[in-house]
Amino acid sequence: MKRKFYWIIPIFAVLFIWACSSDGDDTETPTDDVGMTDDDDGTSATFARGAMLANWADNIILPSYNAFLTDLEALKSDFGTFENDRSEANLVALRTAWITAYKSWQNISMFEIGPAEDNGLRLTINTYPTDVDLIESNITAGTYNFELSSNRDSRGFPALDYLLNGIADTDTDMVAVFTNAATGDGYVTYISDVINDIETRVTTVRNAWQNGYRATFVENDGSSATASVDRFVNDFIFYYEKFLRAGKMGIPLGVFSRTQAPNLVESFYYPQLSNELFLDGLTAVENFFNGVAFGTEDSGESLASYLVALGREDLRDDIQTQLNSARSAIVALEPFRTELETNNPAEAMFSAYDEVQAAVAMFKVDMVSAMSIAIDFVDADGD
Amino acid sequence: MKQIVQTYLSKKTEAATLAVFRILFGLMMVWSVIRFWYNGWIESLYLEPKFHFSYYGFEWVKPIGDWTYLLFILCGLAAILVTIGYKYRMAIIIFFLSFTYIELMDKTTYLNHYYFVSVLSFLLIFIPANAYFSLDAKWNAKKRFQFVPKWNVDAIKLLLAMVYIYAGLAKLNSDWLLEALPLKIWLPSKAHIPVIGEMMGYQWVHYAFSWFGALYDLTIPFFLLFKPTRWFAFFFVVVFHIMTGILFNIGMFPYIMIVSSLIFFSGGVHHRIVKFLANIFKINKSLFDNGVQFNLKPRFRKKLVYVVVTLFFVIQLLLPWRYLTYPGELFWTEEGYRFSWRVMLMEKAGYAQFKIVDGQSGAWFYVDNSDFLTPFQEKQMSFQPDFILEYAHYLKKHFESQGHKNIEIYVESQVTLNGRRSTDYIDPTVNLVGEKESFHHKKWIIPFKDEIKGI
Predict the structure, then answer these.
(1) What CATH number is given to the structural domain containing A171?
(2) Could you list the residue range(s) of the whole structural domain that residue A91 is in?
(3) How much is the ipTM here?
(4) How many Å lie between the alpha carbon of A371 and the closest alpha carbon of chain B?
(5) Are residues A204 and A349 in the same domain?
(6) How far is B397 from chain A (nearest CA, A)?
(7) Which end of chain B is less congested by CB atoms within 10 angstroms, N or C?
(8) Cβ contact A33–B252 (<8 Å)
(9) Can you list the residues of chain A whose pLDDT is less than 50?
(10) Which residues of chain B make contact with A310, given a CB cutoff of 8 A?
């Protein structure tokens, strides 16, 4: 047996070499319909996922958290001014700081992974519509526990939206509520508690990133259902699909319920802001996709450059174009609440929604497939 | 002709071969069941989903609540009994039934290697794998045989050879051979694997893997059958399966195939393995070397076994070709795709939005799939037409029970196949409520826009 088996080695070797080398002719003609550009045989088309993770963490995620906390600090300071001097002018300044912070939140909302996920950050900070009755009864009671999930609808930015914009019809009337000798302090304290709650939670998450999670995130640079890239791309698409597309537009449009519901828009009491918040979220998505460092024009390794490394410029271009079309369509709209209240069906908003929708399949089907991203936490066997 | 068949059927071989196969197969199955449970898959795949996708005709097979655990216990215990060869016939029947029931509960989890286990355990029902080195044989001299009919061992070899060759034939298509797809998509994502990771981005590697894989599948059974090349072929079996095990998330499959390939060795090798085991467990091996040959006694029973096994192989031989009776590209429609050893052949993904329309008022809304399906189910559903139809019918029932009337269901779907840009998959103007599941071609699948040549 031993004596005989050597003669097969040359045969297998020849077959193997033949198998290796027989790609010569076929690779010369790139097939456009497959969308794959054939790389030069001499270069490896692997992509350093670790470098992309580092760019995400160091140039996008952490700077975004830091910028948000800076904006929140400004909100706190304007609140301090208002607390001591409850004038209309100070209310307007406080509202402006709230707008800035709320817009800044749109930059970090999508990072629901690791510490943010553990803390359920998005749900605790931006669940809308807010529950006005619950807020009022909390204020009347004077005690409330923001750790309870039952209080999810009475805190975060939507609660501030009500307290700073919806508590009365005019600024004069609002100031009257805050200066009411019997109940005014209750409202002001509540605003303070909501702001502090946001600050505590985001600070916890930011610190966790600084103290260890950043390393965990970047080092987990493999390719599996539990690897950082796979998990985060899932989270990223989930944000786009559920929170940007559905939450900010689809649900108020009644896409999933057949009834238009203007009361479900984000920033309901300050409706001119809803579209802007959407666009900020969209910008954050675009910048993340393109790997643009926060607050700059510079870009590093990203999903876009990953697609390029895989020879899929076509897909990168289509995604960028689609996100631009979505932006143009949204920019042309009246505030969502106005669109929904004046038109039924809100045709223009529906067609804008379709533009937003069109990118979902590009992310979820084409991009995920091109990158071999494992679908959400499914680590069942394949074959 | 009859003479040749009779002569072949009367040929004998060492029962030790079957004993080794039984023990190793049993151990693999015990390990599989434990692993499945340990990974929490009983909950996540069978208990947590609200809805399960059924095989056509097996809609009555469903997870049975907490009793599902009992089913796995039963399956695991049967596998232990098979391993030690105690009440073998009963054990292998229970194993076949419980394992197959588990697989039929939800087709989301369909894997060729699960199907392989079902099919193999069915075949084992008709093979006296307990004739040698088993508790049955140890405790009952009447069940103790040193030799078994040669066809018993050959049947297992034939099944394995069919798996390999059909898997190889399935690779003879233009995507696999000319474009190195889907390996060109999958391999570059494995760059982080030590040592070989760096190579995974080179195009020549994608082609080499593709061509070698096809060649391996098509030829390995012959190199295993041919004595002079056997050890060398086995070395390739081990290398090939370990390699795929490292690169892809395929669980137990590589080990099952490696262990199964041992069946190709001669009796001498298996006697040495049995001797090794006998020494460890202090079992008197010579007890089994009694020179007696197993022979199915009542002639009627013997004939029945011949008929069943022959039918089994005829079906196995024909089933992979059933796709030829359907129009359109197999990879796209997946009509006739399953149960045909089409392993790791395509990178396919899809997206499906279901639109529930009131046929009278025209009012409509979209379904949030995550309300009904797990991410895994949604993924599998979105590119397989039979899943899409079954889910649509489930949605109809669900929304009817909520008081909706005149329900029409349309699906807007996109699918990508082997890196092609996604295109529309299901005709969005077809009301799926009006379509029935059957073995007929599904006319509402939009034909594939490209062409894949080959088998």
Answers:
(1) 1.20.1420.20
(2) 46-221
(3) 0.89
(4) 7
(5) no
(6) 17
(7) N
(8) no
(9) 1-5, 7-11, 13-41
(10) 185, 188
